[in-house]
């Protein structure tokens, strides 16, 4: 189930079923077509930079982390050692503005994921 603002637009990943690939290859072979496979040194998958070298496959998540922080305007925040700022008092919101629960949930999910890296 997808919810708006919670990885809604970024979560689509086109995936081909193996049967579809087999049918395509069989049809191409039947028509005597030439099929090329491209090898790439570096590719991006869902914001992850994946690079391949003779030593192995490496995954870099810095692009994903920066984009996630920019979505919620966190790039200007100062880093802290603990996730809770000690000895700070919360002020009452006199206007009582409603909080969008999906925006808040997406923000918390992003922060939890990034701190677990």
Query: How far apart are the first and last residues' alpha carbons, in Å?
Result: 24 Å
Number of helices: 3
Low-confidence stretches: none
Q: In terms of structural class, how would the helical and strand content be classed?
A: alpha+beta
How confident is the prediction overall: mean pLDDT?
74
Query: Looking at the structure, what is the overall shape?
Result: elongated
Q: Main beta sheet: strand number and arrangement? A: 3 strands, antiparallel
Output the radius of gyration: 22 Å
How does this model look, in words?
The protein has 117 residues and is an alpha+beta fold. The chain has one domain (1-75, 100-117). Helices cover 33% and strands 13% of the residues. The protein is built from three helices and three strands; from the N terminus they run αβββαα. It has a three-stranded antiparallel sheet, with helices on one face. The protein is elongated. InterPro entries: RVT_2. This is Retrovirus-related Pol polyprotein from transposon TNT 1-94. Residues 2-60 form the Reverse transcriptase Ty1/copia-type domain.
């Amino acid at each position: 189930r997808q919810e708006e603002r919670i990885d809604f637009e970024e979560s689509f990943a086109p995936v081909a079923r193996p049967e579809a690939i087999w049918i395509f290859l069989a049809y191409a072979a039947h028509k005597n077509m030439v099929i090329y496979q491209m090898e790439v040194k570096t590719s991006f998958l869902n914001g992850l930079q994946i690079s391949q070298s003779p030593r192995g496959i490496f995954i870099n998540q810095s692009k994903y982390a920066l984009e996630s922080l920019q979505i919620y305007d966190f790039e200007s925040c100062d880093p802290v050692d603990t996730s809770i700022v000690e000895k700070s008092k919360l002020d009452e919101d006199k206007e009582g503005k409603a909080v969008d629960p999906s925006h808040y949930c997406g923000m918390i999910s992003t922060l939890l994921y990034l701190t677990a890296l």
